[in-house]
């Protein structure tokens, strides 16, 4: 990282960004085409991120062909205005962000799918008690759950 003073080196702080961020931007390979970027809500647990999806559509089709994906998520974003707002160069942005990559896998085991869905719910709606959540058989059947085992990630923060 060029600006070393902005790097988040504490693994727990990097994980906190993934726990607090609500949207994961996934970059997926498409042979002979530009990377496909798609935003999803997600959850983080034990070195992996999870998202849910329909079983159909471009992202699932592409991940099935090539499971290596990159991702980005951020939190605490705020545009910071300078004392003199006409001074364009003095505007800034505060953020904490994570960039990483890993291997995506469509979960098939019901227990793993449930754990993934609970991780997602903990990420998007931490105020809801997980024990109160209902995951019906119908939902389980029609919902694809993808686990991305993180192989590497970096964190960066600015003005937070
Ligand atoms: C904040 C946010 C959170 C979301 N959370 C989830 C989630 O948790 N799970 C989930 O499955 N989906 C989520 N979505 C929707 C997701 O971004 C995709 O639209 C959806 O998953 C379908 O993706 P697909 O690859 O199957 O697209 P397809 O339906 O196969 O369509 C592919 C085509 O549609 C275009 N396209 C697809 N998605 C978008 C988009 N979001 N904006 C503009 N163009 C698009 C592509 O460029 C491509 O040309 C979320 C979207 C946003 C903005």
Molecular structure report:
With 160 residues, the protein is of the alpha+beta class. The chain has one domain: Electron Transport, Fmn-binding Protein, Chain A (Pnp Oxidase, Chain A), CATH 2.30.110.10. Helices cover 24% and strands 41% of the residues. The chain has four helices and eight strands; from the N terminus they run E-H-E-E-E-E-H-E-E-H-H-E. It has helices spanning 11-20, 58-65, 110-124, 137-142, and strands spanning 7-8, 23-28, 36-41, 43-45, 48-53, 68-80, 92-106, 144-158. Strands 1, 2, 3, 4, 5, 6, 7 and 8 form an eight-stranded antiparallel beta sheet that branches. The radius of gyration is 18 Å and the shape is globular. The two termini are 18 Å apart. 25% of the residues are buried. The model has no long low-confidence stretch (mean pLDDT 96). The site of flavin-adenine dinucleotide (FAD) has 11 residues, from strand 3, strand 5 and helix 2.
């Amino acid at each position: 990282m060029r600006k070393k003073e902005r790097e988040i080196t504490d693994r727990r702080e990097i994980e906190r960004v993934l726990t607090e961020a609500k949207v994961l931007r996934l970059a997926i390979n498409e042979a002979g085409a530009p990377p496909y970027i798609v935003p999803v809500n997600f959850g983080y647990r034990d070195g992996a991120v999870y998202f849910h999806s329909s079983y159909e559509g471009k992202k699932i089709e592409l991940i099935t062909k090539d499971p290596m994906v990159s991702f980005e998520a951020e939190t605490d974003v705020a545009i910071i205005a300078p004392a003199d707002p006409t001074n364009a160069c003095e505007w800034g942005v505060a953020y904490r962000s994570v960039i990483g990559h890993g291997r995506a896998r469509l979960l098939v085991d019901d227990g793993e799918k449930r754990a993934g869905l609970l991780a997602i719910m903990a990420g998007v709606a931490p105020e809801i008690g997980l024990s109160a959540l209902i995951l019906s058989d119908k939902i389980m059947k029609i919902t694809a759950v993808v686990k991305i085992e993180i192989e590497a990630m970096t964190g960066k923060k600015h003005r937070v």
